[in-house]
Amino acid sequence: xxxxxxxxxxxxxxxxxxxxxxxxxxxxxxxxxxxxxxxxxxxxxxxxxxxxxxxxxxxxxxxxxxxxxxxxxxxxxxxxxxxxxxxxxxxxxxxxxxxxxxxxxxxxxxxxxxxxxxxxxxxxxxxxxxxxxxxxxxxxxxxxxxxxxxxxxxxxxxxxxxxxxxxxxxxxxxxxxxxxxxxxxxxxxxxxxxxxxxxxxxxxxxxxxxxxxxxxxxxxxxxxxxxxxxxxxxxxxxxxxxxxxxxxxxxxxxxxxxxxxxxxxxxxxxxxxxxxxxxxxxxxxxxxx
Length: 289
Known about the structure:
By secondary structure, the chain is of the alpha+beta class. It contains nine helices and ten strands. The protein has a single domain, classed as Chloramphenicol Acetyltransferase (2-Layer Sandwich).
């Protein structure tokens, strides 16, 4: 789709949106005015079966890859979730991107870095494994810094008053779609989804805020697995593995019914991920651009 007047480098302006949703950003100006928190539980029997199958095929894969691939599949079918509000206007994001924090080594002394991976809406679980693992490996070296780390370090060298002025300029330019592309490319705050995996740290999922800086409208956190007793159809007591997902969303981008359908689809795909082995039959385009 060609860029038109009013579009941004990273998003298409919504021109057919409901008038009420055009008004909402003037009522709720910041994301922390508009973020909604909720949680749900997924059951992992089929998820772990697929992970074991992929590992037998030689792939280095875990729940993180399944979660990311499921998110991409949802965004390919429910594109209105891949929107953002900035400068009191709503845009459809031009790409699917996932930001996540990576610990270079599992100890207290090693710094954490943040990476952002760009995906195609037709990506399968195999594509996700390759792209995510490649990006993580590039950032595992404790002596290396990625572009986001280097930019953050440069900012911290500034005196407080100059840093405050710089951040004001970044927000000012971003609100007007004038922030240079190289900054939005390296910024983890300009992405479709911010994802955190707390299971690797051995703790439960948490409710995480979404940031006012940038364009991110979705934050998903998942934690360690748990075991749950249940009664099967024959009244036998059994145990199954489960995991809680906690999600924060910017309610200004689309109505609650659409959000609910997207979240239900995400939970269904994570719990039954076989469809991720093949590309989606079609990719849906946001019809309000």
